[in-house]
């Protein structure tokens, strides 16, 4: 099924692909220079504006449209955002919609350039194979949530995007500790040409970052679809523990993936 859908998508000509790689290099170089020379001297609001503009420009280079449903549900105050996870691109798609801090697996910090950029953007890294460290991160995330919103990927890994893996409940506890609501976000990628789900952004298995980027460049004309879902706290009158929050979020996102 995966191969069949990708074959139906138009392939980007070789010469255009070369041009896209050049634009990506220049865009990343601009981002690195800005983080080094500009970010230390500007206020948080200006930083968020720049992150959004940079991410939107990256989507334009990849020729990815952005469609958002339900954005009006998000409050002005801080919140926890739980999303399914398909690709490294998810972070930039979300930031193009609304800049936010992320929790990411520790391996991301070692990625060339993008890992360093994630560190400069104050990403919270977690070692998923270390239970003690995971508990420490819960407290760290709860502290951040008192003033800033954070996005998590509770599946713990990326998928093809046609189903949702069980959500790990640990980080949902941070929302309860901080007393902030939890919202769910469903991410999907579709071919603009066929209208069907596209698997070219999927970042799975032993795939490397450059290989994943090459897949996206080769199969352009994509649309990233974000669907913001109501917080479970707004639907219930009783206190919610982390397991209920995780299960509700997982099931809500799964329904969206099946519906669209």
Radius of gyration: 18 Å
Oligomer: single chain
Distance between the termini: 17 Å
Question: What is the residue-averaged pLDDT?
Answer: 88
CATH fold-level label: Glycerol-3-phosphate (1)-acyltransferase
Percent helix: 40-55%
Number of strands: 7
Across the major sheet, the strand order is 1-7-6-2-5-3-4
| Spans of at least 5 consecutive residues with low confidence | 1-7
Instruction: Please give the largest β-sheet.
Output: 7 strands, mixed
Order of helices and strands: HHHEEHEHEHEHEHEH
Provide the domain count: 1
Derived from helix and strand composition plus strand pairing, the structural class reads alpha/beta
Our estimate of the beta-strand percent is: 15-25%
> How does the overall form come out from the CA principal axes?
globular
CATH architecture: 3-Layer(aba) Sandwich
Top-tier CATH class: Alpha Beta
Entry summary:
The chain has helices spanning 2-8, 14-37, 44-62, 89-97, 114-120, 131-145, 172-178, 209-218, 242-259; strands spanning 64-69, 80-83, 101-105, 124-126, 150-152, 182-191, 222-229.
């Amino acid at each position: 099924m995966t191969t069949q859908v990708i074959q139906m998508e138009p392939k980007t000509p070789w010469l255009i692909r070369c041009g896209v790689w050049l634009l990506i290099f220049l865009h990343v170089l601009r981002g690195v220079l800005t983080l080094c020379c500009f970010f230390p001297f500007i206020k948080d609001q200006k930083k968020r504006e720049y992150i959004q503009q940079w991410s939107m420009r990256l989507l334009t280079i990849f020729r990815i449209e952005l469609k958002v449903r339900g954005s009006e549900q998000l409050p002005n105050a801080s919140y926890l955002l739980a999303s399914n996870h398909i690709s490294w691109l998810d972070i930039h798609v979300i930031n193009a919609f609304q800049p936010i801090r992320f929790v990411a697996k520790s391996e991301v910090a070692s990625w060339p350039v993008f890992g360093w950029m994630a560190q400069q953007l104050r990403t919270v890294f977690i070692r998923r194979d270390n239970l003690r460290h995971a508990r420490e991160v819960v407290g760290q995330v709860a502290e951040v949530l008192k003033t800033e919103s954070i996005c998590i990927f509770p599946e713990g890994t990326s998928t093809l995007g046609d189903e949702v893996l069980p959500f790990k409940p640990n980080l949902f506890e941070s929302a309860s500790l901080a007393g902030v609501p939890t919202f769910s976000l469903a991410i999907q990628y579709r071919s603009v040409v066929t209208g069907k789900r596209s698997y070219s952004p999927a970042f799975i298995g032993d795939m490397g970052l450059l290989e994943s980027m090459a897949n996206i460049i080769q199969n352009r004309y994509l649309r990233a679809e974000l669907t913001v879902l109501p917080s479970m706290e707004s639907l219930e009158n009783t206190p919610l523990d982390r397991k209920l929050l995780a299960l509700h979020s997982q099931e809500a996102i799964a329904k969206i993936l099946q519906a669209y």
